[in-house]
Amino acid sequence: MNKISKLFLAALLFSGTAFAQDEAGKKEKVKVPNNWHHLDAAETGYNGISLDKAYTLLKSKNLKNNRVIVAVIDSGIDTLHEDLKPVLWTNPKEIPGNGKDDDKNGYIDDIHGWNFLGGKDGRNVKEDSYEAARVYYNLKPKWDGKTVDEASLSKAEKEEYITFKKAKLKTIGDGDKDNNAQLVMLKRIQANLIKSDSLLKIAMGKTEYTGNDLDAFKPQNSDDTKAKTTLLNLMKGNEAMDQKNTEFLDGLKGYIEGEVKKDDAKKNPPKEYRKDIVGDDESNFNDRSYGNNDIMAETSFHGTHCAGIIAAARNNDKGVDGVADNVRIMALRAVPDGDEHDKDIAYAIRYAVDNGAKIISMSFGKDFSPEKHWVDDAFRYAESKGVLLVHAAGNDAKNVDTADNYPNPIYRDGKGRANNVITVGASGNMNNGGLTASFSNYGKAEVDVFAPGVGIYSTIPGGNTYGNASGTSMACPVVAGVAALILQHYPNLTPQQLKFVIEKSAVAPTEKVNLPGTDEKVSLSDISKTGGLLNAYEAVKLAGTIKTEKPKSTLPKSKVKKTKMG
User: Fold this and answer.
1) Would the pLDDT of 315 be above 70?
2) 73 and 364 in contact (C-beta within 8 Å)?
3) Is the pLDDT of residue 558 over 60?
4) 159 three-state secondary structure
5) Are residues 70 and 89 in the same domain?
6) What DSSP line would sit under 331-400, residue for residue?
7) 3-state secondary structure at position 157
8) What is the pTM of this model?
9) Which of 127-131, 179-183, 476-480, 519-523 is the least confident region?
């Protein structure tokens, strides 16, 4: 899921000096268009995906536009939003509200998808712990404080022991005592920002404003000047100039709550947020009788934003146009505030595949995956059924060639890797921070392509509203949308061919880019497999040259038991 990156901490702790500049050195602010990620670089100067050119090319070919189902595994979707309601997938075999499993797929009244974080009593999981803490406390009785001769361990035991050590380090650290001091400072800064925001609301005469609005504001006294500087530095440092103050401060609140949760995990086992509500046996993969059909629930900002990027209704004179014009969005809620559970992700993928999705957008990730074999099997199942998986690379400015980030296409059993997965890093443009997002994960071997992920304008829940968000979480659905657009017109392309088309057609920038999280200049080919930026026009052009045939199943049908929902 899209989480504020670790760079946010640095920006907070050094907010007084990190981004300050005198008036003489200040660059003229350029208003970035809401649809910059759709634009063509040569025509507009914005490094978007050349979407209009892609549509023009497709129109000239007079191809049939086939409907494509795209599953969004995320935090939920606002099903009432004006730009999403027309594009929601509806289960054709299910009768709404009759309390029956009409299509016998194991899920009752799954009209627009399924909520794997829901209880039969209607309650929903909103937040959860972090996987590192769950792994550490689960393995602690077996390994903690023990003298271990790794040479005497079996392969499985050695892998478990190494995982335990990593989880322990991630959870309780290496004895650094500065964390508490940092946490205290973060809370003080948060209080100061809230105070600054209150002053600015009065001074600016409005309750909501963007970073750009704040940048243009001329304070009339020293208190307002200080308030502006305090908040503006943070918004600039986190590439949030297009974001509203309310959204930014909510993100800060969530970040600090997460840090508090991590700090508490040093002393106490994580709370079992999911167990009481969902009620399944999480250790038993054949126990699938859980969840409910409330795909909107309480935490739908992230999923709603991602869904709009893919398929918000086009050309309806409302808020935003999605990338693809003939898509139905299947909503699968499996990602809480915190780390998702492997079982939920594996079942969400299987649900998407079994109910007709051809592309699955997955904007989430974590450092540990204790039941990765379940997810790996779901990846294999998706591949066997001709389904493309698109995954966000993550927002920690780390090299995922060497640092763990799950799910990934590398099978844990050592039997190769999935070839139906595209891993996406986040790009920007020269008017909003540079071609690579400062927060984006990267990797020459494991990140396939970069796509727009900074200041992306899309649907948000709560009354037909719209707003900006940044993250590889936003870049991922841009790629999923382009994949859908291609598949609409070339329906016989296999996932492997779709992956080839998107990656082969990526446009390499002529200039060097920032290594995320640093000022170091590198070639994009040094930090991604293709060395290129997503381009819908070039992808569509290449797709027209690919010889296709109807895909064949290469793996047997799932043997997972289907049990009826109670």
Assistant:
1) yes
2) yes
3) no
4) helix
5) yes
6) EEE---BSPPPHHHHHHHHHHHHHTT-SEEEE---BS--TTHHHHHHHHHHHHHTT-EEEEE--SS--BT
7) helix
8) 0.86
9) 179-183
Structure tokens given for 150: 């790794």
Arithmetic mean of pLDDT over the chain: 89
CB burial string 234-272: b at 16+ within 10 A, e below? bbbbbbbbbbbbebbbebbeebbebbebbeebeeeebbe
Q: Are residues 96 and 51 in the same domain?
A: yes
In this predicted model, what pLDDT tens digit does every residue of 224-266 receive, in sequence order?
A: 999 999 899 888 877 678 788 988 888 788 778 778 877 888 8
User: Residue 490 maps to which CATH number?
Assistant: 3.40.50.200
H helices then E strands: how many in the chain?
A: 16, 11
Which among 540, 551, 419 is positioned nearest to 494, based on CA atoms? 551
Residue 119 and residue 135 in one domain: no
Question: What does the block give as tokens for 115?
Answer: 């909520």
The helix, strand and coil proportions of the chain, stated in percent and rounded to the nearest 5, come to 40, 10, 50
Phi, psi of 251 (to 5 degrees): -65, -40
Beta carbons within 8 Å of 563's beta carbon, 6+ residues apart: 106, 286, 287, 288, 289
> Which DSSP category does 440 fall into?
-
Helix axes 245-265, 131-143, angle to 10 degrees: 0
The answer to whether 35 touches 322, Cβ cutoff 8 Å, is: no
First-last CA distance in the chain: 30
**Is residue 495 included in any domain, yes or no?**
yes
Residues in the chain: 566
As a whole number of angstroms, the distance between CA 486 and CA 482 comes to: 6
Only one residue has tokens 């990526």, namely 506
* Residue 193 domain-assigned (yes or no): no
On whether residue 259 sits in a domain, the answer given is no
Reported as a single tens digit per residue, the pLDDT across 386-444 is 999 999 999 999 999 999 999 999 999 999 999 999 999 999 988 777 899 999 999 99
Contact residues for 8 (Cβ-Cβ < 8 A; gap 6+): 238, 252, 255
Residue 513 lies in a domain: yes
> Which residue segment(s) compose the domain that 370 sits in?
36-128+291-543
Q: Which residues contact 415 (CB under 8 A, 6 or more apart)?
A: none
Q: Are 504 and 451 contained in the same domain? A: yes
| 178: confidence class by pLDDT, cuts 50, 70, 90 | low
How many C-beta atoms surround the C-beta of residue 300 within 10 A?
Answer: 23
Query: What is the tally of structural domains in the chain?
Result: 2
Kindly state whether residues 85 and 167 are assigned to the same domain. no
Domain match, 433 and 486 both: yes
Residue 329 pLDDT more than 90?
Answer: yes
Pair 315, 451 in one domain: yes
DSSP class of residue 531 equals: -
Residue 389 near residue 418 (C-beta atoms within 8 A):
yes
Residues 302 and 397 occupy one common structural domain:
yes
